[in-house]
Amino acid sequence: MVQYVLAIDQGTTSSRAIIFDKSGSIVSTGQLDHKQIFPKAGWVEHDPMEIWNNTREAIGQALSKANVTRHSIEAVGITNQRETAVVWNKKTGIPVYNAIVWQDTRTQGIVDRLAADGGVERFRATVGLPLATYFSGTKIVWILENVDGAREAAEAGDLLFGTTDTWILWNLTGGVDGGVHATDVTNASRTLFMDLTTLEWDDEILAAFNVPKVMLPTIKSSSEIYGHAHAASLLREVPIAGILGDQQAATFGQAAFDKGEAKNTYGTGNFLIFNTGTEIVHSKNGLLTTVGYKLGDAEPHYALEGSIAVTGSLVQWLRDNLGMIGSSEEVETLAGTVDDNGGAYFVPAFSGLFAPYWRPDARGALVGLTRYVNKGHVARAALESIAFQTREVLDAVNADSGVPLTELKVDGGATVNDLLMQFQADMIDVPVIRPVVKETTALGAAYAAGLAVGFWSGLDELRANWQESARWEPKIEPAERERLLRNWKKAVTKTMDWVDEDVI
To answer: Is 227 helix (H, G, I), strand (E, B) or coil?
Structure first.
């Protein structure tokens, strides 16, 4: 009987189950979208019960489409939207509040309060991160301070916290009936609570946040058996053996295992990860220091990361909020109706600016407008903003690492957009390379799980699976590149200092 590995990809907009074979090729996929909940400006939530129900259904779809049962699945890997926080009652299995999504900015007041003593860099030497609304730590604080009875229940040991990997793992392994409450080092490194050196929760930081340690999951490696699927599951008794946060999973799926290798994922946001090997490198240029992966008892690999909040979601915004396009795919066609941006620059600082600026006071701006500009120019400016933001992050990576990249591996939904990929190569002046398997996030989770159970023999076998699908070489004149980048940087300055106390 042919055996496979199943990956659960719990993302920002959907939950998927993807079955992979030994070559790393996709056998079948199940997918369901979940609602994006926007109670107020800057607030973004998901319903954790909807996510769990969708995950179960997606697993059923994937098994059905592949015409296989649990007996054909060697292991399950989980990857997830990393900083999205879920807090639930361990006795009932019911969340006390909706999941607060990584894009959510409601906790800025909590950030300011914590930064009053030591600034936003207060904990960076320990956790590799600045104080920011992005990370899950402040989201837990908000729930404890704003949900009736949450503080008391947490201190009594009745509440559990997890990012969505932990939520899925706990439910998949039984929930209230013995569910495993654990996470991996990559997700733990995005909470603001984990010491990068010891890979353990830091008691002093937890005290500063006033978060009870009893809420937190056990920190495990990215590749080991955490538990087995519950008897009531379609995957009954299959080992759950890999967890990687989505961007680390995409890096792993791109076979960027070694120091100096990197990838850029084009999803809801963009995330460039540069592997620094077993060395912790603290950025001086606005990047995050994070855990790249840890395989069983082996030493952890670390990474520098440039996080960009709004890229693919800008295209969704053009579609859903403005009605400029009927589907996300149409943006390339619309942008292709013009030869350039017509002088327009779109800075999508909808959640403030992330790397390398970290300016929560910024808001989106469309600048350089004249009567000449039409919707084609706006669509092109939106796509170009993705490449401009990536260029700025890549400049920071090069400055921090001292090792300029010679090529950029890319993945994610927007990599099917040839216009964007060519412009990206033009802006960074190195080749852009897309692999055959574009679902590298799910593939990375599958790899981590498969390694833990011996489905794959080691990293060399995984490297051999990687195959190039498409390549874009830089074509633009250097002077034109510099002109465009100069105007982009000018446009970015127009977004800053927008949020005052009385501005929503």
So the answer is: strand
